[in-house]
Amino acid sequence: MTTVMMDKVVLITGANSGIGFCAARDLAGKGARVVLACRRPEAADDAMAAIRVIHPHAQLDSVQLDVSSLESVRTAAAEILERFPTLDVLVNNAGVAKVRREESVDGFEMTLATNHLGPFLLTNLLLQAVKSPGGRIINVASVAHTMGKIHFDDLNLTKGYRVMRAYSQSKLANMLFTRALAKRLDGAGVTVNALHPGAVNTNIWPGNRWYEKVVSSVIRLFTISADEGSRTTTWLASAPELEGETGGYYQDCKPQKTKSSARDDNAAEQLWAVSEKMVGLSAA
């Protein structure tokens, strides 16, 4: 175990498997106190046990969180603020890709709810706890954002739903959220960055129905391991040379250029305003 992250508190959503688990394991190995925010408490317990096999002295905690549910996000945020009044790093990692259109408990399209609206609300509720100076917010986006469009006339994709249409919209939303939040936090000592982990073999790809299993098995032929995919997340959370770097987009631990759609400030502000209303922040 190294000490580069000693005394730092890191919260990772969806940390029980895939990229989130690998990042939690590696950051715990660097000395961080890692909080695993997971939908199922038993999955968090299993993940913590697996990490302690590798790092017996790892500092680990868990919080129950279903990012697709606004009530769960608010409940978890209140618990986090009480238990961990200072966060050094917040990693918005949890995500889904739904082959068929589903709705969250709040009536939102599930991919949008999980990949954008939940993280948007959670981040805003936890901003007061993110350490300044030096705090870091990391959004796990995707190169899929380059194919995305924000359908402001039908954000919930009630017409013409397709899995990549929904997923790419949510990932473009991650990019625009990163840009808008970085602007809002300019000069506050807190950085916000996004990343593409690579095409990673994780359980984000659905497998409940036979045709979903077929699609997912084909996708996995072209994927990399979660270990490889988590490296950029871990680097963004811990690398000293990134202090003060904000509003960026990274892959393979290197800055990447973004499409103009991800740099559209008008779209970013419009999405922020709409998201505030959808999650109930604008009335707060």
User: What structural class do helix, strand and pairing data support?
Assistant: alpha/beta
Shape: globular
What is the CATH architecture descriptor? 3-Layer(aba) Sandwich
Total count of domains: 1
Descriptive report:
The structure is a single chain. By secondary structure, the chain is α/β, with parallel strands linked by helices. The protein has one domain: NAD(P)-binding Rossmann-like Domain (Rossmann fold). Helices cover 42% and strands 13% of the residues. It contains 8 helices and 8 strands; from the N terminus they run βαβαβαβαβαβααββα. Strands 3-2-1-4-5-6-7-8 form an 8-stranded mixed beta sheet, with helices on both faces.
Outline the secondary-structure elements.
Elements: E1 9-13, H1 18-29, E2 33-38, H2 41-54, E3 59-64, H3 70-83, E4 89-92, H4 110-126, E5 135-140, H5 163-184, E6 190-195, H6 210-220, H7 226-238, E7 249-251, E8 254-255, H8 265-279
Helix pairs in contact: 1-2, 1-7, 3-4, 4-5, 4-8, 5-8
Summed up:
The chain is α/β, with parallel strands linked by helices and 284 residues long. Helices cover 42% and strands 13% of the residues.
Key phrases:
284 residues; 13% strand; Rossmann fold; eight-stranded mixed β-sheet; 8 helices; 42% helix; alpha/beta; globular
